[in-house]
UniProtKB/TrEMBL annotation:
Domain Methylamine utilisation protein MauE: 7-86
InterPro entries according to UniProt: Methylamine_util_MauE
Full protein name: Methylamine utilisation protein MauE domain-containing protein
Its membrane topology: Multi-pass membrane protein
KW Cell division (keyword) present: no
Localisation: Membrane
BP-aspect Gene Ontology terms: methylamine metabolic process
Keywords recorded for this protein, A-Z: Membrane, Transmembrane, Transmembrane helix
Keyword Transmembrane helix listed: yes
Membrane-spanning segments: 7-23, 52-73
One Pfam family here: MauE
Gene Ontology CC annotations of this record: membrane
Length: 101
């Protein structure tokens, strides 16, 4: 049982790492598109868009590599969940990106 759950955890971790690495690499290879995408969300002031467009791919790549290496898995899981919840909460009041029931 422990071997099966370990294998499932590894596959899930590997899959989530790909979810972080794929867009991080795409944003790194197309910085102008990345900057336009960050600006399109309209959640940060215009002066923050260029630094965010540079930092976001690096952040995604570091998270993906940390998942592959198995570094800080519990902490990363908690923090990723909190970031996702914060993003969802930030967008929901505006109704622009909210998930409708």
């Amino acid at each position: 049982m422990n071997t099966v759950s370990g294998a499932i955890g590894f596959v899930a971790r590997f899959g989530l790492a790909i979810v972080w690495l794929w867009p991080g690499t795409a944003k790194l290879l197309a910085p102008l598109d990345s900057e336009q995408a960050v600006a399109a969300y309209e959640i940060a002031p215009a002066s923050w868009v260029p630094p965010l467009a540079v930092a976001l791919p690096a952040f995604e790549l570091v998270l993906g590599l940390m998942l592959l290496a198995g570094v800080f898995l519990t902490t990363m899981g908690r923090d990723a969940l909190l970031l996702a919840m914060a993003a969802w909460t930030a967008w929901r009041p505006f109704g622009k990106y909210a998930i409708r029931p």
